[in-house]
Amino acid sequence: MNRLSRNISIILRSERLIAQRHLAVLRRQTGLMAAAGIAAAVGLIMLNLAAYFALSTSLSPAASALIVALVNLALAALLIGLAAKSTVGEETAAVAQVRDMAIEDIEAELRVAVEEAKAASEALKSMARDPFGALAPAMVGPIAKAVVKAMKK
């Protein structure tokens, strides 16, 4: 029973650690997305104006605006790609393995307990069918000792 409670405790701790790692990665992704948004809002406004004015001297205003917009989209895609690469798989693999081992151990203990319960049930059934037959093997030894003692006297 002690192993069972220990394994349940291990499973709960493992699940909590996995959830904490998932939240940490989600927090990191959210932070990166927020930082990307702030950087895009502040830096790109100034960069866009500077690029537009620089390009409009050699190109038409429409072509200058299109080039600035394409560069903005490429930068946004790069930042989203960096945020999406954050995963928890390799960080939680060891914890998940410990959790799985604890689950397997609990399953093995439960199988043993079920087998013991079945054996006890069968013993009770056999005792109910033949009470003297079930008690006879246990009584043979003491009866034999008493007979041998009586014969010695």
From TrEMBL:
Tree of life domain: Bacteria
Keyword annotations from UniProtKB, A to Z: Membrane, Transmembrane, Transmembrane helix
TM regions (residue ranges): 31-55, 61-84
Identification of the protein by name: Phage holin family protein
Lineage of producing organism: Bacteria, Pseudomonadati, Pseudomonadota, Alphaproteobacteria, Rhodobacterales
